[in-house]
Amino acid sequence: MKQNYKRTPVVACLLLIGMFAAGQHTNILIGDSINEFFPEEPCVVIDPVNSDRMIVGANIDNYYKSEDSGFSWEQGKLESPYGVWGDPCIVADNQGSFYYFHLSDPPGNPWVERIVCQKQEEWNSSFGYLSDFGWNNNKLQDKEWATIDRSNNYIYVAWTQWDEFGSADPSDISIIVLSRSTDLGQTWSAPVRLSEVAGDCIGEDNTLEGAVPAIGPNGEVYISWAGGQGIIFDKSYDYGQTWLDNDIFVTETPGGWYFDIPGLNKSNGMPVTKCDISEGSYHGNIYINWSDQRNGEDDTDIWLAKSMDEGETWSEPLRVNNDLPGKQQFLTWMDIDQTNGYIYVVFYDRRNYDDTNTDVYLAVSKDGGDSFENFKISESPFIPYSTVFFGDYTNIAVDNNVIRPVWTRLDEQRLSVWTSMIDYTLLGTDNATPSPFSELVNYPNPFTETTYLSYRLKEPSTVNISICDLNGHVVCSLVNNEWRNSGKYVEAFDPNKKELRSGVYYFRFEADNRVTTQKIVYCK
């Protein structure tokens, strides 16, 4: 059953006006436990063919689709012949198809005994069962994660295989395995063991967890995971068929990957691996993002290590959160904008409080992981309670300045999943340089027909004025590279001539390489 969250034009206009009055990065409710079971542990993917389209998955069997860049969402439910038991992960190929991976819960059979792949081939269709893999004599298959090589649409899925969940028997082990599909998810290779050293099956620090594969510039497959040795890295140069005989040590994780955070019934610092395949200055760099308690149980931090030689050697861990010591940051995820190499990391953060009030922060690095700027992106804090399972991860997807983090929050014992309409123009804005524009007035705003922009130019300059969407894409130009003397000007903008749809936009003013923006709201 689907439930449609799309608003009528009047309601949508009121929503946009409310968003206009809200914070810099507007928060959007994707789904909550009023309409579906749970939800938590969200994941998100942006369609590489059309960045206005994106899909979010959440425990235990939920998915949400948006075709307006995340302003509104439509909810659907998953079914499969092997049941559905969470750990959602979604990837998209370069043909417009989406693949949803989850654990199994077959009636009358062992729990989580295989991985299930569901596929949506066309945007207006639903997800449907396509294939399954990983079954191995009733051993448990857990915490799968997928990536896709969009140069050939090969799909790689890695996960943890347990001999017996929760067993303290030293003969029961956990290992990291990987399978691939070269035919768009129809069939899968036999799982290959990646971990040279096995872990136990207790489900804590000495169990192997957190395998997230990544694709390199030439089809290399990179991956890391956490266990008793710390964070371990492996790689394949033949599309996932063979791997290193000796895994590579990246870093210790003092305190382990499984630790306590007040208000959560469990938390973890499992690693996320990504590779820069952009054409930027940091092409080929591999990054691993995780959290640990090396600075104490009351000071969990977010970390990043990088390799510039295909994973052979790794940098010392860099602290991503830039607050003073003594606060909790946890449940992190990372993505790279492959158009420019910028690294984005999302995490929960308590730097502003002396209790369990929790914000969501985004950190961005524009220098290859050497430094990070931090920004609060949640509009209000929330307090999690250990009696309610909160999930094991957040998530984020980035594509050509479209930045969509997703997270869970808890309000009055009710779980909900959210995203934020990240305004990338406000990430790292330098306010120290005086603007050449003053007396900026836009009227009416919000507007339904023509709106007028009045401004004063302080000094003679070459001027560009354009309308941009929230992702920074230019919708149209009002003034194009014109020399203007100092003085007052008025520009008129008629949205009907540009077939604009309702939404939040920007006037972008540029003169002599100095940029000023002003937010506007159009209600059609």
Could you please describe the fold and organization of this structure?
The protein has one helix at 9-21, and strands spanning 3-4, 26-32, 40-46, 54-59, 62-66, 74-77, 89-92, 98-103, 115-120, 128-133, 140-149, 154-162, 174-181, 192-193, 214-215, 221-227, 230-236, 248-251, 258-259, 267-268, 272-275, 286-292, 301-307, 318-319, 329-336, 343-349, 359-365, 373-376, 395-399, 402-411, 414-421, 437-443, 451-457, 461-469, 474-484, 487-493, 503-511, 514-522. It has 2 domains: 3-421, 6 Propeller (Neuraminidase); 437-522, Immunoglobulin-like. It is 2% helix and 45% strand. The chain is mainly β and 524 residues long. Residues 1-11 have low confidence and may be disordered. The radius of gyration is 24 Å and the shape is globular. The strands form 10 sheets. A 5-stranded antiparallel sheet has the order 1-6-5-4-3, with no helix packed on it. The protein has a 4-stranded antiparallel sheet with strand order 2-31-30-29, with no helix packed on it. Strands 7-8-9-10 form a 4-stranded antiparallel sheet, with no helix packed on it. The protein is built from 1 helix and 38 strands. Strand 25 and strand 26 (343-349) form a beta hairpin. The longest helix is centred in the N-terminal third of the chain and has 13 residues, at 9-21.
